[in-house]
Amino acid sequence: FCLSVFICRVQDLKELGDLSPHWDNLRKEVMTRYAGIISSYQETLAEMDKINGCSFKPSCCKAQKSLEFIPINLHTQRMRVTCPKKTDAFYDIITVGAPAAHFQGFKGGGLHRLLSRYEAEKKSFSTAYQCIYYSPEHTAKAQEVLSIMSLLQPLITRLVDQLLQAAHEHSSPGLRDALKHLSDKVRQHSNLSLPSHLSLYSSLPQAAAVHKQLCPLVTRLKDCVMEVVEKAKRAMTFVLLQEAACSIPQGFLLQQRRDIVFSQALAALACGFVMRLYAGMQDKGFLRQLHLVGLVAQFESLLSTYSEEFGMLEDMEVGISDLQRVMFKITEAKSDDLSDLQPLVCGRRDHFTVEVPLPKLVFHTLPEEIKEGKLLRVFPVLFNVGINEQQTIAERFGDISLQERINQKNFETLEAYYKSLSEKVPLECLPCFQTQTDIKELLETLGQNVVAKKKKNVEILWTAGTICRRLNGIRFTSCKSAKDRTSMSVTLEQCALLRDEHQLSKDFFVRALDCMRSPSPLHDQHSLPSTIITIPHRFTGSHACSCKSCSLVFVCLPAGKHSHLLKSDEV
Questions:
Q1: Are both 32 and 74 inside the same structural domain?
Q2: Residues 392 and 415 in one domain
Q3: Which of 247, 254, 248, 249 has its CA nearest to residue 109?
Q4: What is the pLDDT of residues 271-311, one digit of tens each?
Q5: DSSP 8-state class, residue 134
Q6: Measuring CA to CA, which residue among 46, 56, 63 is closest to residue 100?
Q7: Are 357 and 332 in contact (CB under 8 A)?
Q8: Are residues 174 and 194 in the same domain?
Q9: CA-based nearest residue to 410, from 384, 388, 392
């Protein structure tokens, strides 16, 4: 999808037409740069096409250039608690190595620092290239206008065709509906000088009487839309040409780095969204929340703020933030074949849509709003607390302001999401937990911990994770490679869930934790243990289910791949 963005940009530049010698030379230089990026991306795709079968990228390959767009150790962790007299409980976590440009390295820092430095330098480039300096906000707006223009013309054409069809069929209700929709869209883009007098005909009683009168007006509207689209497209493309000219050469390298990080983050998000969607298909409250508000996607990071991991965190911050531009759309799959159920990414850099096909029978159980193609939002939030020995050095001699800023900013995002959710969806739609702490109280606790000057304050991660589950969110856990620190965090969280939600006795907490962390014969250095663990009734204490046959199933699977499973009779 990143490749298609550059190809579209080249085509837009070609369609600018004749330019003065100065601007034509700049255009050629920019297009040459774009051609280099396109060639590089095509080579990467060719290398990736050589990979056969389902697999994942292990940590030993994180610095391999041909795999730099692929996330490290992307796995799904599902803990299933079963009981014959109760509904099975599922707890999912997506584990993934920090989305970052590992091949390019971190000597100059990560994206946050590099982009800040680049924006300061770009002003001097604009003088050298005789260009107007445009801020990131201005260029983002230009890209947004281009996206709107690409959608406006086919939208107006479709509405006009519906209008004429209704008039041809002498359908007064159909005519009024088509006129209303068309008038709404015209008014929405009234700043583009579109003719709006079509709305005068919405009160005409006889469709047949207006068919002939509509034809010339419709033709005029189509011509006007085409003219406006072409003018706006050329103007915005020229703005982006100036921005690209000022970006040479550092800006292109940074865009590649940003694409790499975003691709890794998006793969993880798509995996988590699909897993959460299937888990909530029978939950009407969840589906209502999904289309009315959207889902929170909470990324837990265990990176230190020292040495190269500081740069990784700067990459990850930008990559997770860029996920705000992603929307999801549920579609009906052509068949139940696995190849027809793969998510598809489309759109431009400023706005991507991930289409998630569902089997026919499953799709038709969804709410009408989702079946009609309503775009579904996600609200990515990132919380980081370094926990290793390098973080000890950072807290004693280094700088932890990056971590503090990230946690504060994302706390505000999470707080705003909850406010929006509580206004649009009854809180009864949210899942029930044994621990009935109010979400507002949990947010207050999180806010206090975010501003507290406490070393290695893992309470931030615990509270953020709890809030995410209470809000039907998607949970992610990351460290450098999603191995040691990640496995420690995930298994501890799972045992805590057993203790808090399923009465695992504190006397057996450590034994259960040790068993989860013990490697099986199939376990390798690249992933968490793949095991099934049975916890007998005697481990759960006197308040456990009376059926005496409750069990826990803990499964770690590479995303999109089935693993062999081992059974254990004892914890």
A1: no
A2: yes
A3: 254
A4: 999 999 999 999 999 999 999 999 999 999 999 999 999 99
A5: -
A6: 63
A7: yes
A8: yes
A9: 384
In a domain, 441, yes or no: yes
- pLDDT score for 292: 95
State the residue for tokens 């396109």. Answer: 38
**Both 80 and 41 in a single domain?**
no
Phi, psi dihedral angles at 481 (to 5 degrees): -125, 5
Which pLDDT value is given to residue 7? Answer: 83
- In angstroms, the CA 429 to CA 117 distance is 45
Give me the pLDDT at residue 323, please.
97
Same structural domain, 110 and 32:
no
What span, in angstroms and rounded, lies between the C-alpha atoms of 143 and 149? Answer: 10
| Token representation of residue 492 | 């501890």
Of 196, 217, 246, which one is at a domain's C-terminal end? 246
301-310: b (≥16 Cβ within 10 Å) or e: bbbbbbebbb
* 517 located within any domain: yes
Give the range of the structural domain holding residue 28, as residue numbers without chain letter: 1-55
Which residue carries 């107007």 as its tokens? 132
In a domain, 355, yes or no: yes
Question: What is residue 62's predicted lDDT score, i.e. its pLDDT?
Answer: 87
Question: What domain count does the chain have?
Answer: 3
551-558 and 75-83 as β-strands: parallel, antiparallel, unpaired? antiparallel
**Integer Cα distance of 309 and 385 in angstroms:** 12
- Alpha carbon distance 44, 40 (integer Å): 6
Could you give the CA distance from residue 42 to residue 23 in angstroms, rounded to a whole number?
28
In a domain, 105, yes or no: yes
Count of C-beta atoms within a 10 Å radius of residue 87: 8
Quick check: is 479 catalytic?
yes
Residues 50 and 106 in one domain: no
User: How far is the CA of 54 from the CAs of 41, 49, 51, 130, 559, in angstroms?
Assistant: 22, 12, 9, 50, 9
What is the DSSP code (8-state) at residue 160?
H
Among 26, 55, 84, give the residue marking a domain's end. 55
Which positions of the chain have pLDDT values less than 70? 1-2, 54, 85, 123-136, 146, 185-212, 248, 436, 520-571
Please give the C-alpha separations between residue 220 and each of 160, 216, 346, 389, 514, in angstroms, as whole numbers: 11, 6, 32, 70, 74
Q: Dihedral sign, CA of 159, 163, 166, 169? A: negative
Measuring CA to CA, how many Å separate 513 from each of 464, 489, 496, 549?
21, 11, 9, 20
Q: Are residues 354 and 257 in the same domain?
A: yes
Asked if residue 322 and residue 387 are part of one domain, the reply reads yes
At residue 233, the pLDDT reads 76
Catalytic residue among 479, 495, 515, 550: 479
Quote the CA–CA distance of 340 and 357 in Å, as a whole number.
Answer: 7
The arrangement of strands across the sheet holding 474-478 comes to: 344-348, 351-358, 326-332, 376-384, 295-301, 474-478, 86-95, 75-83, 551-558
pTM of the predicted protein model = 0.79
Q: What Cα–Cα distance (Å) separates residue 419 from each residue in 101, 293, 426, 440?
A: 35, 11, 12, 10
CA distance 486 to 59: 13
Tokens of 563: 């693993």
- Report d(CA 504, CA 209) in Å as an integer: 76
